[in-house]
From TrEMBL:
InterPro entries: Ald_DH/histidinol_DH, Histidinol_DH_CS, Histidinol_DH_monofunct, Hstdl_DH
Superkingdom of this protein's organism: Bacteria
Binding site for substrate: S225, Q247, H250, H316, D349, E403, H408
Organism: Alteribacillus bidgolensis
Binding positions (Zn(2+)): Q247, H250, D349, H408
GO biological process, one term: L-histidine biosynthetic process
Catalytic residue positions: E315 (proton acceptor), H316 (proton acceptor)
Gene Ontology MF annotations: histidinol dehydrogenase activity; metal ion binding; NAD binding
Entries under SUPFAM superfamilies matching the protein: ALDH-like
Protein name (database record): Histidinol dehydrogenase/sulfopropanediol 3-dehydrogenase
Cofactor(s) demanded: Zn(2+)
Cofactor note: Binds 1 zinc ion per subunit.
GO cellular component assignments: cytosol
């Protein structure tokens, strides 16, 4: 392979300094509860408002939205919920006999208390709340605690609030950053302690999720947005360029990568990116993202291009090829796959229905993204009777003897027929 454009090294999600700051935040909130949360909100977010949004404030905020704005968010909630429900239909309880007198199976149970983090960011992302909350509601969570920064006129943006409410959030707090993750993980006087925390965020949020994992479950630790466009001579450079910049504008450290088997397509795409960027606002993160993190790679063959994609294990993988579906089984590592020229990642970001909380920084090698299954537990059970007891007890006694485990041997031995 050959680089026409090489990126800087991807930014690390954590550092010793960030780790220490977050550790102190978690410890302080665990000790001092709401008082500590309010101090961090004032210091880090310049917010002095009450932590929880009560019903009156939520309703007044939502009332400022137009009918059209609500309609857009309703569609997002409906589609994300529908896809989550369809995913859950694939998860089935099971029970069967595994030999005479040995019955085993599993059940699918919802996580009861979910913590949903919705970042404030540079823009009010209308889909972020539904993406995190709607699958939890579909899974059957009884309580969904949502936290989002108070960075819109001293509160949460009305559209974000509406999305959270419609998706099923039961408690909404104007808390951002690591302090929000800590509050949901340890519980305070106001913020309920949850069982699992999900949702994207900045490096402090990611580090907080890493540190509270074990105390609570987490979905994944996500970094800046990533897209890899896989293209050949059938691709339209202008469209490829637009798809690269759509993700580049998320963050200065976002990664927009083009891998092409056609040098002509690659060169024309670079030209189109440069043209588009001239019309982007000077403050758009897309400028820094493309300059520092953008990559363009020429693959010598289709096979090499597929190997590159699998090695990069990218968050969003968009195949701009006429035969894209034929490649599906050969593409193994990605957060979400987009087949054919018109399957824009933006559709998924906004409204198609698949979740946009996805693995980054090569985590797609071992995990997928947030989905309805992130909010359920597969728990096993067994019932042993009659001949099953005779078979398993005899085995357990012999194995425990070899292992030297007296209690294990005893528990099995008292169930053997000669000892009843």
């Amino acid at each position: 392979m050959k680089f026409l454009k090489k990126a800087e090294e991807p930014v690390e999600s954590g550092s010793e300094e960030v780790e220490k700051i977050v550790k102190d935040i978690i410890s302080n909130i665990k000790t001092r509860g709401d008082a500590a949360v309010k101090e961090y909100e004032e210091k880090l977010s310049q917010s002095v408002r009450p932590l929880k949004l009560e019903e009156k404030e939520i309703e007044e905020s939502i009332s400022t939205l137009s009918f059209e704005e609500k309609k857009l968010i309703d569609r997002v909630v409906d589609r994300v919920s529908a896809f989550a429900e369809a995913q859950l239909e694939c998860l089935k309880p099971m029970e069967k006999e595994f030999g005479e007198g040995i019955k085993m199976g599993h059940r699918i149970l919802p996580v009861e208390k979910v913590g949903a983090y919705v970042p404030g960011g540079r823009f009010p992302l209308l889909s972020s709340g539904p993406m995190v909350v709607a699958p939890a509601k579909a899974a059957g969570a009884k309580q969904i605690v949502a936290c989002s920064p108070a960075n819109y006129h001293g509160s949460i943006h009305p559209a974000v609030l509406y999305g959270l409410r419609c998706s099923g959030a039961t408690d909404i707090f104007a808390i951002g950053g690591a302090q929000a993750i800590a509050a949901m993980a340890v519980g305070t006087e106001s913020v309920p302690e949850v069982d699992v925390i999900s949702g994207p965020g900045n490096r402090f949020v990611a580090e907080a999720k890493r540190q509270v994992f074990g105390k609570v479950g987490i979905d994944l630790i996500a970094g800046p947005s990533e897209v890899l466009v896989l293209a050949d001579e059938s691709a339209e450079p202008k469209v490829c360029a637009a798809d690269l910049l759509a993700q580049a504008e998320h963050d200065p450290h976002a990664r927009a990568i083009l891998v092409s088997t056609s040098k002509g397509t690659a060169e024309k795409t670079i030209q189109e990116v440069d043209k588009f960027l001239k019309d982007f606002s000077e403050t758009s993160p897309a400028h820094d993202s493309w300059e520092k993190m953008g990559e363009v790679i020429i693959a010598e063959s289709l096979e090499e291009s597929i190997d590159i994609c699998n090695d990069y294990a990218i968050e969003h993988l968009h195949v701009h090829m006429d035969n894209s579906r034929q490649l599906m089984d050969r593409l193994k590592n990605y957060g979400s796959l987009f087949l054919d020229h018109d399957s824009s990642v933006v559709f998924s970001d906004k409204v198609s229905g698949t979740n946009h909380t996805l693995p980054t920084q090569r985590a797609a090698r071992y995990t997928g993204g947030l989905w309805a299954g992130s909010y359920v537990k597969v728990v096993t059970h067994q019932e042993i009777k009659g001949a099953g007891v005779d078979l398993l007890a005899d085995h357990a006694v012999k194995q425990s003897g070899i292992e030297g485990l007296e209690g294990h041997r005893l528990s099995a031995e008292v169930r053997m027929p000669e000892n009843r």
